[in-house]
Amino acid sequence: MNSYINLSENYLNKSQDMEWYKDNLTLLTKNTSKPSANEAVTLVEYYLNGVLGISVIFLGLFGNLLTIAVLTRRTMKSSTNCFLTALALWDMMVLVSTLFLITLPQLSAKYSKTIFPYIVAYFYPLALVSQTTTVWITVSFTVERYIAVCHPLRAASMCTIARARIVIFMVSLVSFIYNLCRWFEYRIVTIEKVMDGNQKEITVSFEQTKLGSNKIYNEIYFLWMYLFIMFVIPLTTLAVLNTFLIRAVKRSQKQQRDMNVRQSRENNVTIMLISLVIVFMICQVPALIYNVAYSINYEIIKSTLPWQVLSSLRNFMVTFNSTINFILYCAFGQKFRQVFVHTFCKCFLNQDKSLTYHGTAFQAETNRKKYITMLKGKRPQHCAIELSSNITCNTVITKYSPTIHHKPSAETKHLLSNYQNGRYRQRLQDKNNCFSNMKEENKIF
Hints:
With 445 residues, this protein is mainly α. Helix content is 67%, strand content 9%. It is elongated.
């Protein structure tokens, strides 16, 4: 989930002569008096998007790699996790874009003179594709969660992995088409300077093309289309759908005693996604305020100190928003935490690899669910298993314990076999077998 990489015209103009940063930063280190307005902006940009930004970027890249490693595990396959995996990939792209477009120019004058012009001309449009994709992927999985929670009868046909992949592909394609004209806004130019002794120094810079400097293009595409497609429509959609989701979560919490395992996990997923959307919307606030003000009177915005500081803040929020998602998954995603610990923290877990099962109970209304206490080491875990006549005890144990390769005990086999062949077999009315039920169960985050 992301905010926006916004290299304003003022920032790009200053970037064309990056000695401006070097000279001002040197002046700041030597001058103990109160800094001027330009010096204050330079100081904020250097420490916020430079020093702090590069640390947050590498933490975010590492966190998103861990996120992808967890979400692509076999037990984590679901339509929601498809969206979150794609979001993590595009978040990494946004972080890399921020590194080359905003952070490195603040830290290296040599980079700004040699590589930065090519980055602006050819890589900046790809950064805009990334930000557009992350915004609409966030909207997409919010719509999917709304359907799953508020229209559960439609969820079985609409909230599938295949549909999620199609949506991700279409969002990425449309984002690329929408930002295609960005590749024609800047071009590379070479500048020759005659030095002492008739020596020539050739420097590389960039400048706006006729399209990039066209007033009608900037007013229609950059201001109004950008404002509505990147701010008004997605934020309004997220605000409305999030309101419905929060109300649904509150209703489910009032009925917590009557919730089964599946409903509890679905509720956990909804809470996690609500937290993602709330953080996303908070990170949009600086960019939203700045872009609205910029569309009203950009001359004042470009030359006023508070607005220049806000411009630096909105760029930092891009980095922060792309980094914080992994922490939110760990904080609110119960199954994400379990898979993460099992995948990366095995050496820190002192537990017995064998599983023992004991105790059974049947749901009074339908007699469909078999509850088994699973003792893993010293920590008991409870799970609900739905059985039917065409499932074996080996399949049940393997499905619920995919990482355990020990054979179940004879007592466990006998217990499950008795249930399969017992008097409750005729009462099972569910058309789906246990394999599809448990596959659906594993979709829960």
